[in-house]
């Protein structure tokens, strides 16, 4: 399970993993209060990408990335439903 040290590398790899097969990709956010760390994991059961941080500035980046992925998921979902009804 590769753990990325820089946010830019992780976000590019995670987006590529999601776009390769959106139906299999999963995103998990995990916060540990004891050490104040936030972990984001993106997986498709074959590849698992992990990024951990305890920096407050990275939380905004993770939040923005997570909402971007959610928008992609909704857009794909509504697009396929629209295609099925036509």
UniProtKB/TrEMBL annotation:
Main location, first listed in the record: cytoplasm
Highest taxon listed in the record's lineage: Eukaryota
Entry's localization field: Cytoplasm
Residues covered by the SRP9 domain: 5-73
Keywords: Cytoplasm, Ribonucleoprotein, RNA-binding, Signal recognition particle
Function: Component of the signal recognition particle (SRP) complex, a ribonucleoprotein complex that mediates the cotranslational targeting of secretory and membrane proteins to the endoplasmic reticulum (ER). SRP9 together with SRP14 and the Alu portion of the SRP RNA, constitutes the elongation arrest domain of SRP. The complex of SRP9 and SRP14 is required for SRP RNA binding.
PANTHER family membership: SIGNAL RECOGNITION PARTICLE 9 KDA PROTEIN
Protein's name in the database: Signal recognition particle 9 kDa protein
Source organism of this protein record: Balaenoptera acutorostrata
